[in-house]
Amino acid sequence: MTNAAPLILFNSLTRQLEPFVPVHEGEARVYSCGPTVYNYPHIGNMRAYVFADILGRTLSWKGYRLTHVINITDVGHLTDDADAGEDKLEKAAKFSAQSIWDIARHYTEAYWADIRALNIRQPAHWSIATDYVPQMIEFAKSIADRHCYELDSGLYFDTATVADYGRLARAQTDEGEGRIEAVEGKRHAADFAIWRKTPPGETRQMEWDSPWGKGAPGWHLECSVMSGALLGFPFDIHTGGIDHREIHHPNEIAQNQARCCTNGLDNPANSGAKIWMHNNFLVERSGKMSKSSGEFLRLQLLIDRGYHPLAYRLMCLQAHYRSELEFSWDGLGAALTRLKRMVRQIDDLRHQYGSTAGYLSTTTDNEGLALLRVIAPRPDEFEDQRLVALLAEFDEAISADLGTPQALVVLDKVLSLKRVDVLQKHSLASIMLRVLGLDRLEPDGDFLKPADLRIRPKAATISEPEIETALARRKEARAKKDFATSDAIRDELAAKGVEVMDGDPLGWEWKLGD
Ligand code: AMP
Ligand code: ZN
Predict the structure, then answer these.
(1) Residues 377-397: what's their mean pLDDT?
(2) Distance 253 CA to ligand 1 centre (A)
C-alpha cells in the first residue's frame, strides 16, 4: 500500500492526537465554518480554508469518500462573537447603497474567487445560512423547552442545562467565559442567543417570523443546523480557526448536546462531530490580522503586487496548521522562489520525456471529490526502491496530523533525485503535488510554467512583449561581449521599472519592480 500509515489528527476536544476512525465505514464527513460575507476575506481567513482543503485532500488520499461542507454566513454573526453588537451584515448595509442580499452575494463571489485562486477543491455543498432558516426554527423549537429561556431581546440558550459546557474552550482555565459581555437578564454570562428578536419599532432587512416573534437566527445555531442537516449527527470532523474554539464551537456543541437529548461529551455523538480541529492564526508583526485595521491583506492585493496566489498557498503549507504563521512580504517572496524552483524542475522533467501529457494531466479533481488514491500508482509501478521509500515517507508525513512542512521536504527530495527514470519521478512528484494542492492548471488549461510565476504588478506600464524584445537584444549583446549595449538596455528597462535578475538562482529572469 502506498498510503498505509495510520491517519492521526489532533482533536481540540481532547487536546490529543487521535487515530481517525470514521463514523461510516470508508467515508469522511467534514464541516468547515465558512466566512461571514460582510467584507472581503483577508488572507488569514483563507488560511483556514487552505487547512480544510489539505485535510480533505489527505482524507481522499487515505482512501475515504469525502463529503465536505463549507457554509456561508450571510446572517446572524454579530460584531462580537458573544451576544454584543450588531449583525455584521446589517451594519455593512447601513453604510452602503446596496441591499444586504447584494452585499452578501458580492462578498460570497469574492470569497469563491479566492477559493479558486488558491486551488482549494470545491466542497460537496456550499450551505448558505439564509437557506436554512426554517430548519433553524425547527431546531430551536425542539430544544426550547428544556434548554432555553426567553428575554425581550430573544431566545437564549441556558448553558447550565448541558454537561461540561465549554470543555472545548477549557473555559474554567482559559479566560474564555470572562470575555463574554453581559446581556440584561441572562442567567449565566456564557448563555447565548439562538434567536434574536427584531427590537420593537425597528425593521431589519433580514428577518423571519418565528414562535418568538420576528427576528433572525443566532450565528451558532446556523452551524449546528447546517452540519446536522447535511452530514447527520455525529459526523467526523468539524473545522475552524482557533478563535472558534473559544465561543462559537463550544456553543455549537452545547446545542448539539441538547438536540441529541443526552448530556455528557464522553459519547462523541453528543458533541455533533467526533473530532474538532482548529487552524492557528496568520498574524502580522503588529498582531492579529484584521479587516478593519492596518493594510487590508486580501489575496487580490498579493496578486496585484505580482505574486502568484499559489505562492501564498505554499507559504501556508510551509508551516504546520497548528502553528502561528507570521505574514511578511519577504516570507511570501521566499515561498514564491521555492515554488518557482519546483515548477522549473517539473517543467524540465516534462521536457525531458518530451510530452506535456503527464501521468496525471487529464484528471481534474477540482470539480468533484475524486479519490486521489485511484490515480496513485501501485507500489509495483515504481521499480526504483528509492521512489517507493519516498512515497512512504511522504504518506507518513501527511498522515501525522497533516505534516505539510515535512511532506514538502520529501517532495524536494524527489525533485532532486539523480539517475532515476524521468517518467516515474514525474509521476511521483505529481501525486505529491496533487495531495498538497500545488497542481493547479493555469486558466488557459496549461500546466503552471516558471514564467507564470514572474512578479507582475498590476500597475506596471510596460508590456511583456516589449520586455522580452529588449531582453533578447541584451542577450545578443552579452553573447558578443558588448557589455556597453547590454548595460544600456538594462538601464533603459530599469527606468521603466523592470529589474533584470541576472543573479536569479533559477537562471535568467526578470521582474517588474513595485
Ligand atoms: P470569519 O469570516 O470571520 O467568520 O472567519 C472565517 C474563518 O477564518 C474562520 O474559521 C476564522 O476562525 C478564520 N480566521 C479568522 N482570522 C484568521 C487569521 N488571522 N488566521 C487564520 N484564520 C483566521
Ligand atoms: Zn460555524
Answers:
(1) 83
(2) 19
